[in-house]
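User: My advisor, Dr. K., asked me to get a structural model of this assembly before our group meeting. I'm new to this, so sorry if the format is off. These are the inputs:
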Amino acid sequence: MSARTAQRALGSVGARGRLVLAVTSMIGLAGFAWPLLYGARRAGPDSAHAADAPWLFAVLVALLLVIVAVEHAAGRLTAKTVAVLAVLAALNSVLRLPGGVAGFNALWFLLIVSARAYGPTFGFLLGSFTLACSALVTGGVGPWLPFQMLAAGWVGLGVGLLEPVPRGGRAEVLALAAYGIAAAVVYDLVMDLWFWPLAVEGPLGFEPGIGLGATIGRFVAFHLATALPWDLTGAVGNAAVLLTVGGPALHTLERAGRRLRFQAVPELVELDQPATPCASPAAPGDVTREAPEEDELDRGGKPSDRRRGARS
Amino acid sequence: MIRVERLSFAYPGSGGPALRDVDLHIGEGELVLVVGASGSGKSTLLRCLNGLVPHFSGGTFAGRVQVAGRDTRTTQPRDLADVVGLVFQDPEAQSVAEATSDEIAFAMENLELPPAVMRRRLEEVLDLLHLAPLRERQLASLSGGERQRVAIAAVLAAQPSVLLLDEPTSQLDPQGAEEVLGALERLVHELGLTVVLAEHRLERVAGFADRVLRMEAGRLVGDGPPREVLGDSPLAPPVTALGRLAGWAPLPLTVREARRQAGPLRQRLRPAPAPARRRAHGRPLLEIHGLRVAYPGREALRGVDLEVAGGEVVALMGRNGAGKTTLLRASMGLTPASGGRVRLGGRPVAGRRTSELALEAGFVPQDPGAALFAETVEREVAFTARNHRLPRSAVAATLEDLGLQDLQERHPRDLSAGQRLLVALAAVLVAGPRLLLLDEPTRGLDAPSKQRLVELLAGRRAAGGAVVLATHDVELAARIADRVALLAEGELVASGPVDQVLSESAVFSPQVARVLGGPWLTVAEVREALEATA
Amino acid sequence: MSRSRRARLAPLAGALAVLLVAVAGPSTPASAAGPGLRAALIVEVGQTVRRLCVRLGQPAVSGKELVEASGLEQRWDGGALCRLAGTGPAGGDCFAQYPRFWGYWIGDGRGGWTWSGAGAATSTVRDGSVQAWVWSEGPDESSHRRPPALTFADACAPNGPAAGASAAGSGGAAGGGAAGGGGEAGAATAAGGADRTTRSGAGGAGWVSLIGGGAALLAALGLVALAWRRRHQA
Amino acid sequence: MTESRGLAPLHPLAWLVWLVGAAGVAGALGNPVYQLPLLGVLTAVYLAGHADAPWARAFPLFLRLGVVVLVLRTVLAAAGGDAAPPVLFRLPQVRLPGGVAALGGPVSAGALAGGFRNGLTVLLLVAAFGAFNACVSPSRLLRLVPGFLFEAGLVVTVALAFVPQTVIGLNRTLEAQRLRGHRLRRLRDLGPLLLPLLAGGLERALTLAEAMEARGYGRHRPGAGQGRGAALLGLAGLIAALLGAFALLAGNAAWSARALLGAGAVVVAAAAAAGSRRSGRTRHRQERWRRSDSAVATAAVAALGIVLAARLAGSGDLGWTGAAHLGAPGFAWLPALALFGLAAPVAAGSPR
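Assistant: The format is fine. Below is the predicted structure of the whole assembly, which you can bring to the meeting.
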């Protein structure tokens, strides 16, 4: 495989888009981490608001997602991007259905590979849309949904960290697998942090004002006790699937990306004006042959008759 | 209405142009039929007419296309939506909504029509396409024909003056195709739309087409009235070919037209011996006795008996839901039988693993491309071989058998529908089964691909193998089948030699039989008989 | 069209506004019952025993928060109390005067005490809790001085805001704790009258809640049965 | 996915108002005397209004989740070693490694009751969402998506429409590969299942994109600056709201914090208003707002208002703050009656 170029599904995101994503992510992070921040603080007379906090932040994070959607989707998603996002989100939701394929939850696998193929911003959107779609399919809409959408979006966005890894080859797959482990563990940890203040009280529970160290200690103890075994099996499953299927899946996505040509720019060859039809300098066949051939020949050097073949 | 001048186009990165130097003028209210084999450029031409080519596809575009005065070079396809509507092959892949009325409203919402106008137009198109009872139905619950009519309605809601249809019936069964084409005929007569239709059910359409365009390798090689263009085309329907053989003038396009001129030919054929029918003598490969299959709430098969022996081709026919697919699936043990016996290769199917049964019978389900995933055709076939622990040499042999050597380094997803079917066949035949089960193999195939399939099946029969194919395609059955089993409501209503069953049936009889009656099923048989008597 | 749409959004906006007021409003749901929540805090230094009745800001606070809410002068090191009401090391090491330090006891409400080895930040104080801090010598409960047998009622007057006055020997550092939501007994403000009438254990209130709650539950179950039947007839 | 059979379907917005009301009431209650009847009310609403579709299974699933939380909270609260009287019994104490916490020790009635009622609060909140999920079909819910989020809503709509096909496709692929001798034994065997599904899905995406483009999708592109300006405004508002929320949680500077939170909310609302004005897209389907919708919405808002007011006034012992005394919880009739306002969806529609 020669150097493959990423087929970005979204045009240049721009400094502004990145800023919005960064700021919303920061705020969202605060929405997740409030128990830690709050646990560290000396509680005052209104510490009773601890009970309201999960709901307050659920609304806040939902609004954040609205803003990301407006910034990155409104008026910007082309038909191609909408279609690919929708198809992948549907596929992802099916893979996330209870039981899934062979009991394995393949959600992260497809998200990570797609984000790698079509760019981190696409990954963010895909992660969020997948969770939204999946929640609607299974009736899983709840206060946790905005947080899940945000966290899954981060998993997709984070694939951008692997940008320096060269495309094609074993290193890429290994990097994706490592990222898969990290992503699964971090996602579960972060969602558990959201769930924790609601789920428990007492010595392993959230309690305002006991100090940052103690808060973290209690949370980690809770997480280790209740969630870690599942997290680890999930993460290892992710990595295994990424290692075995990741490469071919990446190929499939990149092929489709080339076929879709997210940013198609037609080359219009000017013929002479119809007023002088006899003065045509070149046969039309020549005209098309003059067009620069892109480096998209299939392996074996045979030209693909991609759309023609599949269609007519 | 449509003006195409010296249009040439090449897809990005493709070796050669998909369209070469096409000149075309289509007037208002014309119904133009576009014919041609796979890859001849029909789809590309239609996509040029609404601007998807080149704006959506990219690529190199030369020449000019004007639709209703708008130049597609400077107009995006979305901005042509109120002028040109395009309906695609696969009804499932082009829907954006869950319910009928939402699907139809999509284009109107994009055009930002006021809600009152939307409501009115929605009612209009629902009536036009007889969809009113389905207005709130989930699209997923509709039949293919209904879904395709919804797709047409969704396009018409924008009130375009040109309607383009890209093989709208190729994925449908005859009933669905009839629904769609009937609706189309009505539209043409009632609305006077300009219609450009790529279609291969010529018999049904030729009657009301004003004009036929024939494409070959990206060039427009024929343009004129249907009789003229189809008369000398290999794509012509069997009646036309029969007419050509018999030297009828004017050439018939429909069975009705042919019957009027058929008298002398019937006379000539009377002394000729009926075409020889083969009888199978091999040992039985598939034995089905009293098979019953029950799905929750209904019985799909109620006591079916069928034996298939080596050296014969059996066609399973019947309308949708008659139990054809269920019979094939039960033969492979994919659907458990609730009664009766199924024996494959002399041993009961029940309790055997699918992968083991696959060595005795190869089953190619509908949509043969669905299981293709490898990077090359060769690897695709090798995957099956590896599953069965077969030697590498089997792969090469199978590829050669099916004439796929030239394609073996190609990506399966780049191939045409016909080529994909061959790859799917290779992927089950590499296991060396003697019996082959095919479910609707000709869906979406063009004439040359069908011919290739017929030759392939005949080859297997000659080698002592057996084939069971479930199909709606009467002409295919007439050409290849030795026996026909007709299913209705889960029961076998007729079973016997192909000429008996098909010529006795009103619905499932091929065109030649309708014209000539009796034992004559195909043009080839008539030709042989005439040569013999001459 | 847009007018009616706006009209439809009104109830949603109304509901959200009600919630917003509840969250950001002056007195929050969770702390609404605050005026009625009290806990007893016993502080013993030498012969001086203070009985403080501290108002709680919320249903459950930590032992540390209880001391903080008392308004006494204090210094903490994590969950350990270094200095309280002028006694204890003023700076640096909390256990600078070890084996003399602030011992932490949790009362059972009947005058019995349990030594708490865990820090005050992790214990829970609720309405009616009794806790004590004793400045004494000795590494653990066997040698450290045990607080006197005092109950909740010894610090807080039963069923009313005007808790009993501080015990003998108290005085001195009067809590300036209005802002802290608590203060020394007696300084506590009156609780709402409504609270008292429905107070648990107060006379016939038990019957009211039994009958009322039972009736509500029965009504709800009837509703469930109704919905069930309608569902299964359909 | 059929709509609910038992009731004339309520407007999704009415359901949303109901949800806000139900969740708000659930969050405000800490007293089992009210909590248990509320659970009954929510169950009745679910029974009366749920559809016969996969997503309608949400309610029982959510209830199960809520019960898990209830048990977890009660058990862990009891194991907290709270020595406040009355102590029911004592457990052996276990210290967790690292000195994070100790489990066991005295089990006080107050801790037990407190854990129970807190768990019940979570259970009720979850049940409210479960009933909402089960009663409103996703596609109708999606119609609530405001105009400025049209693209995002479209992605989810299209995805939902694709889900049934994808499930069928998955089963077909599974079978087709079995016919080629494939068996699913290890993780690597997933490749032949996932890859064809992926490739086929992407092929469909291409046609879908063409179909959308051909039907005028993306025709109207408002000046990008407008909507995104509103987004930035909204972001600013959210930052303000966040700071306010944190200040409020931290408990200092109470009034400025509230002002900040309120101002943030107002700015966000203004941004939303500005954003929605921008979208010129029209909609075909106008959900009808019936009288029953008004009734449900009004009843829900009234229930919420009464319960919150009662809580602010301290009447009715809504939070059951006397848990430590283990006396009988208090009760008042008005808030108890208000709970039944949330049952309005049961009565609102006549059977179709």
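One thing worth pointing out at the meeting: Helices of chain C lie at 2-24, 63-70, 152-155, 193-197, 205-233.

User: Perfect, thanks a lot.
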